[in-house]
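Entries read chain and fold; for instance:
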Amino acid sequence: MKYLLLLMTISFSFQINAQTSLNMTLAYQWNDPTLAASIDHDNTYNEIWGYAKDGREYAIIGTTAGTHIFDITDINNVDTVYFIPGKAQGTQIVHRDYDTYRDYLYIVSDEGNSSLQIADLSMLPDSAPVVYDNNSLITTSHNIFIDTIQGNLYTCGGVTNLGPNYLSVYSLTADPTSPQFLLNCSNDVPFWNSTINYVHDIYVRNDTAYCNAGPNGIFVVDFSNMANVQGLGSITSYVQQGYNHSGWLHQSGNYYAFADETHGKDVKIVDVTNLSNITVIDTIGSNVNQNLSIAHNLIFNGDNLYVSYYFDGIYVFNTSDVNNISLAGFYETSTRINQLNVYQGNWGVYPFLPSGKILASDMQEGLFVFDVTFPVGISDNNVENELTFIVYPNPAKSSITVTTTLFENTVSYSIIDISGKIVKGGTLLKAQTTIVLDNISTGFYTFLITESNGNVVAKKFVKQ
């Protein structure tokens, strides 16, 4: 398939080189020329994240100064709602990383005398107060990931309470604002140092972790018993192998995509249905420069794979037919040209907002918000089973009743019409909520529930 994609790309090379986007429209951009750039990569901006609650949507972006939160609900009237100064600031800062659990934002940095910061997002748009700012557990971290099903935070690299870190795990279940140490893999897992070693980034679903271990490859690990962690499978040699940087599991659980942060190496799609025999299905790339193009971070939402491609910008691939992957869209965020051993341009992407807006961060150009013309891939079913719900009656007349299961706190909902406009929003109570449909016209609607971690589940209904 790679060769078909190459031929397709070559045939359209003049058109693509002449345009900066495909099926993606810039709706909003922000940068601040007064902020300092890092001394390592000339990057003022780093990680991107998103959050939605009570019918409102927020973009979260890291800089050398700290964390900036924008209310982007009305794209024509974007408001900077809050700024969280970093524990460490200035030109030494290259990396910040984020994840959410319930209504809390978790913030780390990989440089300086940093800390783990936790901000309460439930008060947005008025404020996002920091409720925890401490380095007794985590001083620095390259990446964090929260398994929201189990409530465990995984921190990759950096320095923790036990010194230099390969991978450590903390529980958030008892109190999301007071992490509890569970495990340091180097010290507590006998096989770790001799096989997996340093983990650069990680994806975890219900205690099953996909560890991106740099030059060592991918390792799948079962953390369901922290006293007896087990390896489930690995792929340590594969086509176009480079530095295994980051990855994301498709919602089906059948295949995993990962990026080798090495010039000229494509993104790999691997079959993980048999963890004792993980195999490469396909390789896909931007094909802008076969020797210099380099992928950074990537995220699945539905069948769409969103890839931040440094200098080349953001690329979106449709994987609905994994044997015939196609290019769904792209946008060239960076004005800089690919260079060997230089890392600049598009840092990350966030595709989980209920409205379908796509967020991206460019290391030099700042925050981007996109409208897209391809399907955003929000699924009717959450395969993680973290939250399920029923909407009835359908068709509905004056009201709908939403029955929910498998969540502890309130979650936000949005009702979206066929044009993508949010016509109603609010908060669901546990178990059952009745929502009046006054002032909503007849027609087809999508009912979206957004969890605090950004996951989205959806049902369609008809208003008569």
Q: What stands out?
A: The first strand starts at residue 21 and ends at 22. The domain at 388-463 is CATH 2.60.40.3080 (Immunoglobulin-like). The helical segments are 2-11, 13-18, 185-188, 192-195.
